[in-house]
Design a protein that fits this description.
This protein has 4 helices and 6 strands. It is an alpha+beta fold. Helix 1 packs across helix 2 (31-45) and helix 2 (31-45) crosses helix 3 (52-61).
């Protein structure tokens, strides 16, 4: 497991676009392509691009399925522990305020979010 600094935002911004960055990693698409496709999904659903519903439906359209992380220890299971437990496959984790991609156990993000606490995740599998 490794944290890989990743920011494909054309202007290297890292505030407010975590969903676009995470989805672009998971789907192997450019930031711009992901932005416009997600904007279309938001328009279709009459909701904001960053809403959990919009990006969740977008991922489902691309073959991902949603899972909830058990609440047995709500503050003790971090993004880094999830990455260690999932060394294969493609995942997008939601923390409630942030989205991060994990690919084959590596955390891709503009900043080290390994200590964040995920609530749910989408998986593509191996």
């Amino acid at each position: 497991m490794a944290y890989i600094k990743f920011n494909n935002n054309p202007y290297k911004r890292s505030v407010g676009d975590c969903v676009i960055r995470a989805l672009s990693v998971a789907l192997k698409k450019s930031w711009n392509d992901t932005f416009w496709e997600l904007a279309g999904k938001a328009y279709e659903l009459s909701d904001m691009m960053s809403s959990n519903n919009v990006w969740g439906e977008y991922l489902k359209d691309h073959g991902f399925r949603r899972n909830v992380i058990p609440n047995s220890c709500p503050d003790c299971y971090s993004v880094s522990e999830f990455a260690l437990d999932h060394p294969y496959g493609v995942y997008v984790l939601g923390t409630g305020t942030h989205a991060v991609a994990i690919v084959n156990g590596d955390i891709y993000d503009a900043w080290d979010s390994s200590r964040e606490i995920p609530i749910y995740y989408y998986e593509k599998g191996v």
